[in-house]
User: Fold this.
Amino acid sequence: MNKKNEVGDKETEGTVSYYLSCHHPRRTGFFAELIRGHWGGCEIRNHWVRDAIFEEDSTRSKNVNLNGNLAVLRGALITLKVRLVPDRSWPFIRELSSMKISLPYNMICKNLFDAVEESRKWREEASSKLNAMSRAERLAYLNALGERVRAELRPKRSLAAAS
Assistant:
């Protein structure tokens, strides 16, 4: 991928980047957008949050274990936020959490209990469906369900995994 850098009205020396992927670059523009989108998303979703919200760069501790543990906790918090409240901004969550200290705990527990309740309802519905089917229908249904689960668990090939 060729990239020309522009500073003001002047065009500076270009850079060449090489990317490996299992995908065939059908259109170079599409492939370039895919690469920019991936790295732009990494910067916004991860690095900016770690720097601006968690102030990771201002950590002054030289203790490797402490810094490693804090990095793991920050990663876990980023994952929880994405899964539990993807529509809320980090500054909003931080401000709300400072006003109501129990909010993060309640968010995690409520969503955990909601997931358990949803799982219970799904099991009951599936059980009543299976009881109403003949043996052949039941086997076909369970095979199709197993195939769907295997498809979801199969690792997805993405640009990040390919590079």
